[in-house]
């Protein structure tokens, strides 16, 4: 789809972070924008900000873990705009688990899987038939190098990183590959894309625990404080890393450019993290050890007493 003007975009997780940036960029391209999010007030604010900039925007409170809610979103989009052309399954929740993976709270697993995996599946199920009927459109699923490439072994807070988040993002990559082939088999022009937001991003994902829904309430007593972005930055700086946030606009550029070029892998320019991909391929081909597993700073994780988990 070369010309986005007048087309309709739906972005889940649109109330903040990357989703909000996508909404702004799509609006800037002359698209009508539907932001969907489970958080009503931030959604309202984000939608109003778009409208204040002359963008035709609608906010629809949606819980991607609930299929009937995503179906209702699709119905509302068609009612308002009569079509949908770009669907970004972007809503996500970050790492809240602490300790080793066998110590993670089952409620953390369920929450992560429901939002990050089932949420994407719900988006595909509700929207792809509409796109197929139109004969054109794009599905963009937000993945992460953390899981999409390989799981980050040690988290930003020093202890073992959560195993929940990367597992869900590995699933997002896998199901987007399946979506790509299934769409191809039908001969449609509808395309699937996988988005890898690059760099260090200042979004709510680092502190997802602030909006933990009651039905995923923790069932275990926490031993360590919840991670905060401020603490993560502090640790990075203490480790000698230069902390610089990547503008969210560059992630939106990856998406708009990727749509224009029909690019499956929506990624930024090559970074040192790409080496994990080749090291992993080499390890598989050599039937070796997974020695490509690194920490959040790209360093090899060495044994250290467990401290805190938590990763985007
Ligand atoms: N920030 C990063 O560094 C980074 C890196 C790679 C991938 N990602 C991915 O990007 C996507 C967007 O995250 P972000 O970084 O902008 O974080 P964010 O927390 O700012 O945005 C995520 C949005 O998803 C919404 N959400 C959570 N649960 C939901 C539900 N059940 N239904 C509907 N909406 C729900 C949240 O309310 C929030 O507005 C996520 O999928 C995340 O995993 C982020």
Plain-language structure description:
The chain has 312 residues and is α/β, with parallel strands linked by helices. It has one domain (8-272): Rossmann fold (3-Layer(aba) Sandwich). It is 42% helix and 10% strand. It has 9 helices and 7 strands; from the N terminus they run βαβαβαβαβααβααβα. It has a 7-stranded parallel beta sheet, with helices on both faces. The longest helix is centred in the middle third of the chain and has 29 residues, at 106-134. The two termini are 31 Å apart. The model is unreliable at 303-312 (pLDDT under 50). The site of nicotinamide-adenine-dinucleotide (NAD) has 29 residues, from helix 1. The site of nicotinamide-adenine-dinucleotide has 29 residues, from helix 1. Keywords: Oxidoreductase. It comes from Mycobacterium talmoniae. This is Alcohol dehydrogenase. GO terms for molecular function: oxidoreductase activity. Belongs to the short-chain dehydrogenases/reductases (SDR) family.
Q: Quick one: CATH class?
A: Alpha Beta
Low-confidence stretches: 303-312
Q: N-to-C SSE series? A: EHEHEHEHEHHEHHEH
Number of spatially distinct domains: 1
- Anisotropy-based shape: globular
Number of strands: 7
Strand order of the largest sheet: 3-2-1-4-5-6-7
Main beta sheet strand tally, sense and closure = 7 strands, parallel
Radius of gyration: 19 Å
The H-level CATH homologous superfamily, spelled out, is: NAD(P)-binding Rossmann-like Domain
Please state the structural category. Answer: alpha/beta
CATH second-level architecture: 3-Layer(aba) Sandwich
Span of the ends, CA to CA: 31 Å
Q: What oligomeric state do the depicted chains represent?
A: single chain
- List cofactors, ions and other ligands: nicotinamide-adenine-dinucleotide
Number of helices: 9
- Percent in strands: 5-15%
Q: Write down the overall mean pLDDT.
A: 93
Pfam families: adh_short (PF00106)
Family: Belongs to the short-chain dehydrogenases/reductases (SDR) family.
GO molecular function: oxidoreductase activity
Keywords: Oxidoreductase
């Amino acid at each position: 789809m070369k010309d986005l003007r007048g087309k309709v975009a739906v972005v889940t997780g649109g109330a903040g972070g990357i989703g909000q940036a996508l909404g702004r960029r799509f609006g800037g391209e002359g698209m009508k924008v539907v932001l969907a999010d489970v958080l009503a007030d931030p959604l309202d604010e984000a939608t109003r900000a778009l409208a204040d900039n002359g963008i035709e925007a609608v906010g629809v409170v949606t819980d991607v873990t609930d299929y009937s809610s995503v179906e209702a979103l699709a119905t509302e989009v068609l009612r308002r705009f009569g079509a949908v052309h770009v669907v970004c399954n972007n809503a996500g929740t970050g790492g809240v688990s602490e300790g080793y993976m066998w110590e993670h709270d089952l409620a953390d697993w369920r929450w992560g899987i429901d939002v990050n995996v089932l949420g994407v599946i719900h988006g595909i199920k509700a929207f792809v038939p509409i796109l197929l009927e139109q004969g054109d459109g794009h599905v963009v699923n937000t993945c992460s190098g953390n899981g999409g490439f390989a799981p980050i072994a040690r988290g930003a807070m020093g202890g073992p990183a959560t195993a929940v988040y990367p597992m869900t993002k590995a699933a997002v990559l896998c199901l987007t590959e399946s979506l790509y082939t299934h769409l191809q088999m039908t001969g449609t022009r509808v395309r699937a894309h996988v988005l890898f937001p690059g760099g260090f991003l200042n979004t709510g994902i680092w502190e997802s625990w602030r909006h933990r829904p009651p039905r995923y309430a923790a069932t275990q007593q926490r031993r360590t404080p919840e991670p905060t972005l401020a603490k993560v930055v502090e640790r990075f700086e203490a480790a000698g890393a230069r902390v610089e946030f990547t503008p969210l606009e560059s992630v939106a550029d990856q998406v708009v450019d990727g749509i224009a070029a029909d690019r499956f892998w929506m990624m930024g320019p090559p970074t040192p993290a790409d080496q994990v991909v080749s090291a992993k391929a080499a390890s598989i081909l050599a039937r070796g050890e997974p020695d490509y597993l690194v920490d959040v700073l790209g360093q090899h994780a060495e044994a250290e007493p467990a401290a805190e988990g938590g990763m985007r």
